[in-house]
Amino acid sequence: MESSTDFKDAAVVVTGAGAGIGAALARRFAALGARVVVNDLDADAAHAVAGEIGGTAVPGDAAGEQGVAELIERSRAALGGRIDVYCANAGIAAKGGADAPEDAWSASWDVNVMAHVRAARALLPEWLERGGGRFVSTVSAAGLLTMVGTAPYSVTKHAAHAFAEWLSLTYRHRGVSVHAICPQGVRTRMVEESGAAGDLVLRPTAISPEAVADALLDAVAENRFLVLPHPEVGQMYAGRAADPERWLRGMNKVQRALEAVEGEAGGSAGQQTRA
Ligand SMILES: NC(=O)c1ccc[n+]([C@@H]2O[C@H](COP(=O)([O-])OP(=O)(O)OC[C@H]3O[C@@H](n4cnc5c(N)ncnc54)[C@H](O)[C@@H]3O)[C@@H](O)[C@H]2O)c1
User: Fold this and answer.
1) Cα–Cα dist 254/260, whole Å
2) Which residue's CA lies nearest to atom 8 of ligand 1?
3) Which atom of ligand 1 is nearest to the CA of 115?
4) What is the pLDDT of residue 272?
5) How far apart are CA 247 and CA 59, in angstroms?
6) Nearest to residue 254, comparing CAs of 174, 100, 150, 180?
7) What is d(CA 224, CA 212) in angstroms, rounded to the nearest whole number?
8) Would the keyword Oxidoreductase be found if you checked this record's keyword annotation (predicted)?
9) Using a 6 Å CB cutoff, which residues line ligand 1?
10) Reduced to 3 states, what is the DSSP secondary structure of residue 71?
11) What's the pLDDT at 151?
């Protein structure tokens, strides 16, 4: 079982761990002596990471009601009947605005938000009975600020942050720790596919997935909710709260810069961006 900073033998589940940030989190927990379940929709990727770290691959969907229930049941079986740490990391970035198709919006709600709600629903009885458990939510700076060019991502990441906050304030006195990881650009496939908006906002300050794992471990050591691998995001978040009009004007400048780039490239605003 884990204490606040000791993950030796801890039972850890990481969703979307076949690549990117999830793989870095799985590797880090394994390096600290944890027993790790590596989940991903991509079964080959899940098996590859699990094989590398001596973990257990439990491939499959980590978002839908049935998928989450099966993942948690199979993870408990693989980890000796308990889960100490659950990293709700899998996420998707659908492009577009209000014009994004219904299925892009509903998939974003499912993977970026309801996956977390469903996992918490399944984990809380065990954690409250034991008086301990750790829920790690990979949100995004887009959940504190916003991301130009992608409304489904920005909106659902705000909701993921809201749910993590709610969990933290509701259960912290009962031994449940919650962390919300809110990076800007991280060098993963998601950024590779983020197009002009990513070039503008994410790539210039993109960090490694390992740096995200470092930031999480620092937050764990301090028992801190908010994990800011890009510290400047904290200043922007404070600036947004202090003067929303100024913040919106600044973000609109970014939007117009994006439209200029897309205009040069022959694209149209809102059609070319992913984050
Ligand atoms: N890369 C960034 O710049 C960045 C910044 C902020 C937040 N994030 C967040 O980090 C998380 C991880 O993203 P990443 O950058 O490592 O991207 P990634 O695309 O490299 O990895 C995401 C992984 O999640 C898996 N996945 C997607 N849907 C799934 C589902 N329903 N069930 C199980 N697995 C699923 C994918 O197969 C993939 O392997 C996401 O929540 C993302 O929103 C990323």
Assistant:
1) 10
2) 140
3) 31
4) 37
5) 41
6) 150
7) 15
8) yes
9) 15-16, 18-22, 39-42, 45, 61-63, 89-92, 111, 138, 140, 183, 185-186, 188-191, 202
10) helix
11) 97
Q: Facing residues of 110 across strands? A: none
In total, the chain counts a number of residues equal to 275
pTM for this structure? 0.95
Task: Specify the ligand 1 atom closest to the Cα of 185.
Answer: 3
Torsion sign across C-alpha atoms 114, 221, 140, 190: negative
Residue 32's Cβ-count burial label (10 Å; 0-12, 13-18, 19+) is middle
Mapping DSSP onto H, E and C, the string for 126-164 reads: HHHHHCCEEEEEECCHHHCCCCCCEHHHHHHHHHHHHHH
Spans of the chain below 70 pLDDT: 1-5, 266-275
Q: Residue type at 78?
A: A
Per-residue confidence (pLDDT) for residue 269, from 0 to 100: 42
Query: What's the CATH fold of domain 11-264?
Result: Rossmann fold (3.40.50)
> What distance in Å separates the CA atoms of residue 223 and residue 221, rounded to the nearest whole number?
6
Task: State the Cα–Cα distance between residues 49 and 57, nearest whole angstrom.
Answer: 8
Task: Say how many C-beta atoms besides its own lie within 10 A of residue 266's C-beta.
Answer: 7
Structure confidence at residue 273 (pLDDT): 37
For the segment 101-121, what is each residue's pLDDT rounded down to a tens digit? 999 999 999 999 999 999 999
- Mark whether 153 is an active-site residue: yes
Give the start-to-end residue ranges of the domains of the chain: 11-264
In contact, 99 and 270? CB cutoff 8 Å: yes
